[in-house]
Automatic annotation (TrEMBL), chain A:
Alphabetical list of InterPro entries matching this protein: Bact_solute-bd_prot1, Chitin_NgcE, SBP, TAT_signal
Protein name as it appears in the record: Carbohydrate ABC transporter, N-acetylglucosamine/diacetylchitobiose-binding protein
SUPFAM superfamilies: Periplasmic binding protein-like II
Organism: Micromonospora sonchi
Record bears the keyword Signal: yes
Domain of life, per lineage: Bacteria
Entry similarity comment: Belongs to the bacterial solute-binding protein 1 family.
TrEMBL record, chain B:
Pfam families registered for this protein in UniProt: BPD_transp_1 (PF00528)
Taxonomic lineage: Bacteria, Bacillati, Actinomycetota, Actinomycetes, Micromonosporales
One GO term (biological process): transmembrane transport
Domain ABC transmembrane type-1: start-end pairs: 67-302
Protein family: Belongs to the binding-protein-dependent transport system permease family.
Superkingdom to which the source organism belongs: Bacteria
Listed Gene3D superfamilies: MetI-like
Record keywords: Cell membrane, Membrane, Transmembrane, Transmembrane helix, Transport
This protein's name: Sugar ABC transporter permease
Chief place where the protein resides: membrane
Amino acid sequence: MPVTPELDRRTLLRRAAAAGLLVTPAAGLLSACAGSTPSQNNANTGEKSNDNPFGVQENSAVKVVIFNGGLGDAWAKEDQAIFTAKHQSVTVNMSSTQKIKTEEQPKMATTPSDVVMNSGADMMDISTLVNEGAIEPLDDLLAAPAWDGAGTVADSLLPGTVADGSFQGKFYVVNIAYTVWGNWYNSALFSKQGWEPPKTFDDFFALAPKIKATGMAPYVYDAVHGYYPRWALMATIWKSAGKQAVIDIDNLKENAWRAEGVLSALQAWEKLVKDKLVLPGKLDHTQSQQAWLDGKAAFIQVGTWLKNEMAATIPPGFEMKISDYWGLGATDKAPNDVYAGAGEGIVVPSKAPNKAAAKEFLRAVLSKAGSAKFAELTKSLASTSGSGDNVQDSALASANELMKNAPKDLVSVKFWNFYADLDKESQNLSEELMAGRITAAQFVDKMQAAADKVAKDSSITKQTRDA
Amino acid sequence: MRHGVARFVTGFLALPVGLYLFYVVWPFLQAAGYSLTDWGGYSDRQQFVGLENYLRLFTDELIRKAFWHNVFFLVTVPLCTIALALFLAFLLNVGGREDKAGIRGVFGSGLYKVIFFFPQVLSLVVIAVMWQQIYRADGQGLVNGVLMKIGLVAEDDPITFMYDPEPFLGVPAVLWWLLLIAVWSGAGFYMVLFSAAMQSIPKDIYEAAILDGAGRFHTFFRITLPLLRDTVSVAWVYLGFIALDMFALVYIMTPSQGGPNHASEIFASVIHFNAFQKGQFGYACAIAVALAIFTILLAAFQLKITRRERIEY
C-alpha cells in the first residue's frame, strides 16, 4: 500500500524540481546574509604599570591572526617571541591566512580574534568597520611608552603612520609596513644604454622613442586590478593639482574633480596610451611585473613590496630601483611630494575578549627590535623609524634615498577607503583610461558624477580629512 | 498499519528535516528579515527601514545591467548547451552508419563519451583557473599564442577576452567568452544524460523509420527529439540554475569581479559587492530575495510550458 497515494511520481518530480530551482542559485547568497546574535563584552584586565601600560592579565590568552601575503608571516613569529619574553604566562595563539574577511568577518559581531591583520585582496572594508563600531580606537596605544626606546609609541613612528590609521579623528588601524610607491626601472640596463630615469612626463615622452627603438615597450601596467594604475593616476593628479585638490576630492567638495591641474594630469596618461607606449596585452600584477623583469617593458609602477613579491624570478644582473612618479613639469603645484605611507593594517575588534593583551602585542610589533626583524625578513620598511638602517638592498636603498629627499607632505588619497562606490568606480575608470576606451575628460566627468551621487546618498556615512 | 508507517517515516525524517529547517530555511527567513533593515554586516546594530531597500532596486542602474546579463545567460546557456549535447549524443548513439548490427554511433564513440564528459569531473574553480591561461591576453596565452604563431593575430594586438567590453550582437564580448566556458563545461554531462535517454528508445523505431526512407535529419527531429522531451526539459531546468548563478566564473575570471567597467556584472556579483565591499548587507539581502522571487516565477513558467503527456514504450 503506497504511503501517499495522492502524490504520483510526476507531481513529486515536478515539485522537487521547483524546490531545487528555488533553492540552488539563491541558497549561498541568502545564507551568506544570515547574521548572528551579539555576545557580551568582557573586559579582563590586570594591574596597569609603566611596563605593562594596558594591564595585561597573567595566564590569559591572546588570539592573533596574520595575513600571510607578500610579506609572509615569519616576521610575526619574531614579534611573538619578543612579546612572550616579557609576558611569559600569556599564551599567544597565532595563525596566518590569506582569507581575512572570509574567516574573520563572521566572528566580528560575536567572538572575534584579539588582533587581526586586515590586509590583502580579501580584507574587511575599513570604513564599514569604523562606522559600525566594530573595531577599537587605539589612541591609548599611541600614548603608551615605546617598547624599547625613549618617548611614546607615537614618537617612534614614521610620518603618515598615525594619519593613515586615523578615521573621524581617532586612531584605529596600526599600519605596520611603510611603503613607497613609484616607477621602477632596471638601473643596470639604464646605465648600459645611457638612459636617465625621467622626472616628468615630458622627459618620459622624450625617452620613450629610444626605448621603443630597442624593441622594448616603455611601460607596462596591471590591467586586472584597477587600484594599481589608480595609484599612478592619483600621484600625477597630486603633483599637478596640489594637495588641496586631492583633499577636496576626498571630501566630496563640489566640482573637486574639475579643479585646475586634474584634467591635465590625466591627459598625460591619455597621451601615454594613445602613443602606444604600453606593452600590448592585458596582464595582471605578477604577470606584468614578470614581463618587466623579462625586459619586455622599461617601466612599471608599484610599491616597495615588489622585490619581495618577485624574489624567486629576478634575473641575475637585474638591479631594480624605484624613482618618483612623473609630474607635468613647471606647472606642478607639488612636484616633489612622494607617494608613501603606512599599509598592512592591524586592527583590534571592539568585541575582542583580551584587548589589553592585543594592544600590548601591537606595542611589541612596533618595537625597535621587532621592526628591525620586519625589515630584514620582508625587505620592506616598517612604520617604526630606523627599521631599515641595517638592511643592505638596492631596492630598499633607492626607496630610502627617495624618502630622504622627500618633503614632509606625502601623497595620500582617502576617498577609496571612505566610499566603496567611488573605490569601484575609480578602479574601473582607471582601467578604462589605460585601455584607451575613455578620454581624460570623460574620466573627470564620470568621477565627478559618481562623487556627486555619493554626496547626495543619505544612506552613506560621510567622512572628511583635514590634512 | 497506516499509523505505524507514518511514525516509522517520521522517525527517519525528523533529523534531516530539522537540520534542513535550521541551516537552510531559517537563514532564508533571516535574510528576508535583514532585507527590511539597514544592517551593515559587521555589528549587531540595525534599523528597520521597511521596503526602502526594495524600492532602491528599481532605480539601481547596476541591478538593471546585472538583470539583462543574467537574462542573456538564461537564454543562451540552456540553448547552446542542450543543442550541443543533443548533437553529440545523437552522433555517439545513432549517428553512425547502419549495417547488419543495426543502428550505432560514430566510430570510437566510447572514447569520445569519456573525453566530452571530462570537464564534469573538474571543479568549477579549476575550470576557471585553467581557462584563465587559455584566455591569457598576451602572447603567452594558449589561444593568442597559437593564433600569433600562425599569423592570424598580430603580436601587438592580442585578443583580450575577459578584458573586452565591446558589444557583439549587443552583448559585451566578455559575456560571450564566459558563455563558451559554461557551455564547454556543461555539454559533456548533458550529452551523457541524453545518451542514456536515447539508449532507452527502442531500436526498431529507428529501423522502421530508415526502412521508410528517413534520413538522419528526419530521424533526429521526428523521432529522437520528441521522445527525449522529458529529459530535455529537466536539463533545461538545471541549466536555468547554472545560468542564474555564473558567480564562480565571473568572480574568478573577470577584472574587478564584474568588469571591465561592469560589462560582466550579474546578480550574484552585485550582491557580493553590496554585502562584502560596501557593507550594505540589508540591501544585498533585498537583492537576493528579489532574485529568489524571480527564480520562483521562472520555475513556474518553465514547468508550465513543458507539461505534456508522456509517451510509453
